[in-house]
Give the backbone structure.
Amino acid sequence: MSDTSHLNLGKDGSEIEMQNLLDEEDTSKSSLDVEDVLYNGETINLYPLNYQKVPLVRFQILASLLLFMVFGMNDECNGALLPGLTEHYGVTKVQVANTFILQVCGYTLASLLNERVYRRVGAQGAVLIASGMCIVCFTILTMRPGSFYVYLACFVPLGLSIGILDSACNVLFGNLEVHKNECMGILHGVYGAAAMVTPPTVSYFVEFGQWNLVFLFPLGLSLAGFVLAAFAFKTETANKYNYICSISKSDGDEEHPSFFTLLKKPAIFLYAMFLFVYLGSEVSTGAWILTYLMEVKHGSYVPMSYVTAAFWLGLTVGRLVLGFVTRRSFRNEYRASRFYAGMTGVFYTLFLLLSLIDSQSTFYFVVIAIVVFFAGVFIGPLFPNASVVALQVLPKNLHVSGVGIAVALGGCGAAALPYAIGLVTSALGFGVFPLLCWCMVALVNIMWFMYPKLIKGHDEYL
């Protein structure tokens, strides 16, 4: 559990900073990295979230990276599978879009249950339960369900499991003691890389009439993540989580505040609303741009899947590269994201203007691919940076619950807004798709600029 960073307690129960220990004793001894505390009859292992000193943290990082690849493939699969699903099941695009809204139900459950799950089974139990649900659902999807309703039903538990896992991974990486920005960029870059390779991969499976076999990839990753997490999170028990919450809460705060109490806090509410719109714009772009290029611009399926992949490639590059740029070129993560959000708006504006040109030339599609690539580059780091900022302004006892609610509600945006775009474009035509994406990105910019006005007392981070 990532809330253990910087916490070590002596036998008298008083808090001792890890840095003080390092100053006083030889850092080469493993005893400095791990402290045992007795709580509720259980010996709890506390250690700094420093992968350079604690080998177990490396395995937690690796498990998180595997599971984030699952998220990327899952978010992009249904948009890329649209032609195969409509043909195989004889359903409409709007019916396929129901997969997005059903994931909203799962994400909503995650926002309500995330903190309770941690209290009862700890981080290890939460990660194992969630990855286990992924294994079951992807196994069913791999078997090509005979009924479209069975296919749809799988996305409720998938939304729930991804909401839990997303929160766990963001809290872990956001609390790392070294290379936090770089690692957070890599985590979210892995998501983008998985989403990037999904459209071209799916296109070939659809061409050969074996669309269901594409789910073997997230299934294999879920299995690997489950096995690795069982070991990596072995010390992250319910007692450890409850203990961390009890000693790190601020005066006057509840140890386990309710859902609505958390949402009343400006830092959590604004973070949740930002992720709702941000993830909605990101996933909507990736999920529907292929359909837009085929229906409105009359492009061919396989070449247009590569244009779609250009967006996810840009997002991956942005998260991997700009994670290293942020700390070196900007005062803090918030200031960096103000610049990145503005540049995202510029390239979405170019995409909107290009949509007004009636052309089907190869050069035209290359230009679109370049524009959406750079749109992805600058939109990519907004999520990981927002997570770092949230963890900076929230007390430790609100990290899991606060980030859990925000990420889960953000996941609702990743499901609800693509669904809404499916409904609007079904009624008005896919020609309005670039305008809808531009509006969402404009709203992302507005909400990010509101942070310093609504969150007080954290000027060093804003």
